[in-house]
Amino acid sequence: MIKKIKEIQKEASGFHAVKLQDIEDFRIKYLGKNGLIPTLFGELKNFSKTEKKRFGGSINLLKRIVLDIIQKNKKELSEENNKSEEMDLTLPGYSWELGARHPISIVKNKIVKIFERIGFLLCQGPEIEDDWHNFTALNFPEQHPAREMQDTFFIEKNPDILLRTHTSSVQIRYMKNNPPPIRIISYGRVYRNEVISSHSHCMFHQIEGLFVDKGVSFADLKQTIQYLKHSIFVNSKIRVRPSYFPFTAPSAEIDIQLSSNGPWLEVMGCGLVNPKVLKNVGIDPEVYSGFAFGIGIERIALLLYQINDIRLYFDNDIRFLTQFRSI
Question: Which of 58, 115, 230, 266 has the most C-beta neighbours closer than 10 Å?
């Protein structure tokens, strides 16, 4: 028995693994259910009590030696693998691709700077609004279609809480807390269920302007629009068409023609602030007047950069976005 144990120990001691599977095969051969060492333990029943004690100790020593050989080979393989995975410092580094501002952000920043140059202050407000700030204070009639569930995204009813449909609610909040003169622009996301329009994704970005002071007239509004047009579309023409909005009176739509033979395209709505709106926020319409306007950022960017599909704004396609790196 001792001779057999020594032979097995000598054979095991010469083991050297090349891969992990070699170690597993070695373990099964010596320590598996039918391996050499369990077989030796099984043969102890054929010996006397004294011999069992003597041979059993030798077999246990052999088992520890085999376990040590397994651990040693695992460690050596692990070290070799780590060395093979070490970084080659002579290789060139990985290049990092530069990002780009989104065209909507570019146009927003451009418009904000244009109005900051003439004294307008940028203001922002919550995207989740109540009915009063979003509709009632802006003179929307109680049965106005925009208040219906199919046009506005209501979060809850009684009280009415909704996703704002325009950034005019920011103007209401500002006028409530700040006396005239007021000269602000408000920017942000707005939400409308307009499935038949180009805004079929139901969310777009808007900038609105508000100017309230003594003696503000429609001439001031038109001159401001001319200034904006000249700052963005230098060689274009504008056209003012009568329109209707609950929060302005009189109201107008502004169209733009980018070339002499090109079509007229609607770009914004505007008008003088309705006296009822001024009353709702505690401003005396007999003393003060004002004008307001609203611009869709997506539409301006479409015209400015000749983008032919509004869905490109939201596809997150790096090929589209990288075109704006140099802007």
Answer: 115
